[in-house]
């Protein structure tokens, strides 16, 4: 298994919204995911259209982190709502890749997530491609302490 070639093809990513996302940036990321054949669901507290082509497909009440191989949190609020926080903490706890695009870096201060751990990607300041590489890797067992 150690010699298996890891690819992001057919992996599932949960894109969690907390607040109003940058729809242009989100659209760019969705196009990049499509080029890499990554499946995704956009999750928010309610179903809605973000623009003519991008819409929220799931809610926190209908989606569970166990259904996804990775998660990306887009947050532009001072705090993270409980359903989104629980979702990313579960993703983190199960050693899955986690990407964070946050306007407030202190929004996770009281969480169990260590932003410097392997498999946690700050896509606010780095390319989405590092997260895609993490999706291909799968689990980040070296988070175990």
Task: Write structural notes for this entry.
It is globular, with a radius of gyration of 14 Å. The longest helix has 13 residues, at 23-35. The chain has helices at 23-35, 82-93, 128-137; strands spanning 12-18, 39-44, 58-59, 70-75, 98-102, 120-122. It is built from three helices and six strands. It has one domain (12-41, 61-143): Rossmann fold. It has a six-stranded parallel β-sheet, sandwiched between helices. β4 (70-75), α2 and β5 form a beta-alpha-beta unit. It starts with 11 loop residues before the first strand and ends in an 8-residue tail after the last helix. 24% of the residues lie in helices and 20% in strands. The protein is an alpha/beta fold.
Say how many strands there are: 6
CATH fold assignment: Rossmann fold
CATH class: Alpha Beta
Structural class: alpha/beta
Radius of gyration: 14 Å
Summarize the model shown.
By secondary structure, the protein is α/β, with parallel strands linked by helices.
Spell out the blueprint of helices and strands.
Elements lengths: L11 E7 L4 H13 L3 E6 L13 E2 L10 E6 L6 H12 L4 E5 L17 E3 L5 H10 L8
Parallel strand pairs: 1-2, 1-4, 2-3, 4-5, 5-6
